[in-house]
UniProtKB/TrEMBL annotation:
This protein's name: Cytochrome P450 oxidoreductase
Residue ranges of the TM segments: 27-46
Keyword set, alphabetical order: Heme, Iron, Membrane, Metal-binding, Transmembrane, Transmembrane helix
Chain residues that bind heme: C462
One Pfam entry name: p450
Length: 524
């Protein structure tokens, strides 16, 4: 290159023809690598959420969060994250988890401008109408919820109390047989069976048969668990590439000989809806399905169509059983792990039965006259709510703990984390102490205001809250009155696997009938 100017020499050296060791294919392969590096650097350093603390991998890829979700350990992970990073934690490139009492009203309160994210789209059911849990439009949600609210009201649930009690009677009889035979049983499994049979009674007019047979009838429990696990986690993939509620995915699964858990549940509910509409499934009394069949259409011009009725019939199965069974398991877990609370509550229940000279099973209204029972239930549900994931919203642009979360990014509060906020419940927020609910009305009102067990106190509060409260109070009181129980292995008292809901299992207990208690076999 002698005699060439400096610029000409530089041009010659940059000529690809002078680089025989570099081929176009290698250059093309470098392009996506460079692109990904650029994306990662942007997300970690220049992104609007870059200053929010959190795991480094979580800042650059949502797969960090997805991995922990699929691992089923989020009930532990979310607590560890906030313990390590503080009140505001970045858990994905565009998502923040927060623990903050003031944020509850901003995100979930009445009149909030924070709407649900696209994650909820995955809960849409093909062939069914819009579900008020899944819809992101606040106005539509209000209309959908209003037309079913009467079916879930406390007065309506108490009209079904005798049918709830029939399930509890069968459950007590089952427990008696276990006690008589000296069997160790998984209490969590039987409480789930109880919850499903109660849903059968109040929603469809008869038990499903889980308690009587000791089996997962119609594969309901297994189908719902699989569906929730896949749906809750697939909603975080780009474009929701693996939603099992996608019609194409359903068809492909069927062609390949697979079973789609959502389809199995949908077919059962659809069969019951059709039978009821055709007069082939008359039960001779009011139930929730009767209410759904009589629902008005959204425009009020006639009855709701098939899809609208179907989605409500599925909602009560999918959400009405698991949430309640988790609550029952939590109460008995904490009592089993805390003998002082166990003994005190059992004594209070005994005293109430004696003072009221009760011969019939205790009613829900009567359980509300035992303050320590209410305290145990509230404390157990506070420490172990059924929902563990964040309730996601699109940030309207808010400041939390001096950190600004710009508008448009995903933000959410996990009930598991919020319910242990030391700013609300004190330095012992992680401890089981039912007595905290026996303090002054003012203090208890504060606890309730910031409690996330049922999704907060706004318009999106869990519609099945009353079902859960009635079942849990009655079950705990009647079990402690009739039985003594102990956790067989207090080192490993139960197993928890999280998939949106917390799934409990392997809660092995030994039961014994208390002296003087008569537990008769139900006729049905």
């Amino acid at each position: 290159m002698a005699g060439l100017s400096f610029s000409d020499q530089l041009k010659a050296r940059m000529d690809v023809a002078e680089w025989p060791h570099v081929c176009p294919r290698q250059i093309y392969l470098l392009i996506p690598v460079v692109f990904l590096l650029a994306v990662f650097v942007y997300r970690a350093v220049f992104h609007p959420l870059a200053r929010i603390p959190g795991p480094t991998l979580a800042a650059v890829t949502g797969n960090w969060r997805n991995y922990h979700y699929f691992a089923g350990t989020w009930h532990k992970d979310i607590l560890d994250l906030h313990r390590r990073y503080g009140r505001v934690v970045r858990i994905a490139p565009n998502e923040v988890s927060v623990v903050d009492a003031a944020a509850l009203k901003q995100l979930y309160g009445h009149g909030t401008s924070a709407i649900k994210t696209s994650w909820y789209d995955v809960w849409t059911i093909p062939g069914a109408g819009p579900a008020f849990f899944a819809v992101t439009n606040p106005h539509l949600h209000g209309k959908l919820r209003k037309r079913v609210s009467a079916a879930y009201s406390m007065s309506a649930i108490l009209r079904y109390e005798q049918y709830i009690q029939s399930c509890l009677d069968l459950c007590m009889w089952k427990f008696k047989t276990f006690a008589d035979e000296g069997r160790v049983e998984d209490l969590a499994e039987w409480l789930t069976a109880l919850a499903f049979d109660i849903v059968g009674e109040i929603a469809y007019g008869k038990k499903f048969g889980h308690l009587k047979t000791g089996k997962d009838v119609f594969n309901m429990r297994g189908s719902i668990a699989k569906a929730f696990y896949l749906m809750a986690n697939s909603g975080h993939f780009w474009g929701q590439l693996f939603p099992i509620n996608n019609s194409l995915i359903q068809s492909m699964a069927t062609m390949l000989g697979g079973k789609n858990p959502l389809v199995e549940m949908q077919r059962y509910a659809e069969g019951r809806v059709n039978a009821r509409k055709q007069g082939k499934d008359e039960v001779g009394r009011e139930d929730m399905l009767a209410h759904f069949v009589r629902m008005k259409s959204l425009d009020g011009t006639g009855l709701a169509d098939q899809g609208e009725v179907l989605v409500e019939a599925m909602n009560i199965i999918g959400a009405g059983a698991d949430t309640t069974s988790v609550g029952m398991s939590a109460c008995l877990y904490y009592l089993g792990m805390h003998p002082d609370a166990y003994n005190r509550l059992q004594a209070d229940v005994n005293k109430f039965y004696e003072s009221e000279n009760l011969s019939a099973p205790i009613t829900y209204h009567q359980t509300q006259q035992i303050p320590f029972l209410k305290a145990v239930v509230m404390e157990s549900l506070r420490l172990f709510p059924s929902i563990m994931y964040q309730l996601l919203r699109i940030s309207p642009g808010i400041v939390i703990d001096k950190k600004y979360i710009p508008a448009g990014y995903d933000i959410g509060i996990s009930p598991m984390a919020q319910n242990r906020d030391q700013a609300v419940y004190g330095p012992d927020a992680n401890e089981f102490r039912p007595e905290r609910w026996l303090q002054s009305d003012e203090i208890v009102a504060t606890y309730e205001r910031y409690n996330m067990t049922f999704g907060g106190n706004g318009p999106r509060t869990c519609v099945g809250k009353n079902i859960a409260l009635v079942e849990i109070h009655k079950l705990v009181a009647q079990l402690l009155y009739n039985f003594d129980f102990e956790l067989v292995d207090k080192e490993h008292p139960w197993h928890v696997f999280t998939f949106w809901f917390a799934h409990t299992s392997k809660m092995n207990v030994r039961l014994s009938v208390r002296p003087g208690r008569k537990i008769e076999q139900p006729s049905d």
